[in-house]
Every structure is written in structure tokens, then in C-alpha cells.
Design a protein that fits this description.
DNA binding; Arc Repressor Mutant, subunit A; mainly alpha
Amino acid sequence: MGRHARTPAAPLDVQAAYAAHGPELYRFALRQLGDGGAAQDVVQEVFLRAWRASGSYDPQLASLRTWLFAIARNVVVDEARRFAVRPWQRQLTDVGDSDAPAVDADDARLVDAWVVEEALRRISEEHRSAIVQTHLRGRPYAEVAAELGVPVGTVRSRVFYGLKALRLALDEMGVEP
């Protein structure tokens, strides 16, 4: 997978982006952190980072929604780490508050899946197929090789180089490990 020549990006219309994706980003952050104030801080930080990095946003690499959720994932991880190190900074909701949302790990997995799916679209079909069959579907290399009519070493090579290309695609999308 080669790098594309980037064309100058139009400035990010933060107001339109917020109107389109802000509430969904807030719900994601709220479910992850379980704290409305922290979720608002996450959304604010997402749009601040997006505004600062708008020159690097390339709609050919990812949809605006995917890009914003990748940023949100990183900000939520940062917030969770900050709370783990300094738990006294977190304003906890009342224990008896039945309206307090539960932290949902499924949301984090869903966002991760969107991001990985987007990154997989950016690598070659041969690499994508090898990764999907061996890593995501858990099929043995020999079985995949027999199905494709190639040596096992070729499948291993496609997986190895496909994972490198996938890492590069995730880097280009601004996703931190």
C-alpha cells in the first residue's frame, strides 16, 4: 500500500461536524466513562483535536465519522488512564442513582471494529483476505493456503506484510496503539 499524495484539505467545519456527530460521540464517551462531565470534556477535546489536525484530515483515508471516533477512542483512553492515576479528580455519580449509565465495553469494541474495518479497506485484497481468514476467522494457514491454491509460506507472507500495511493505515488514520 503506497502513500497517497495529499491534496490540501478544506478547513473543518467544526459546527457542522459537531451537529452531525457530537451527540453520538457524547453517548459513546458517556457509556465508556460513566460520567456526564467527563463525556462532555471528551467531546470538547475531540473537536479541539480535530480542529487542530484538520489540515491532516483526508476524506480519501477515512470518513469524518470514523476519523472523529478514532480521535474519541484515543481521548477516552487518555481520560480513563488519567482517572486511574488520579481517581480523586473524577466526580463520581451517586451510588443510588439509577439513571447513571453503565460503562459498556461493547461500545469500545464497536468503535474499534469500525476503525479496523476502515483500515482493512485500505490494504490490498490479498493482504486483507489473508488477515481476515487467519486472524479474524481463526482458520489455519494450511487450510487458507489450500483454498487459495498457494503455498503456506505465501499466506504467512501476506499476513505479515498485510499487518504492516494495516498498522500504516491505522497510523494514517490517526489511531494510536
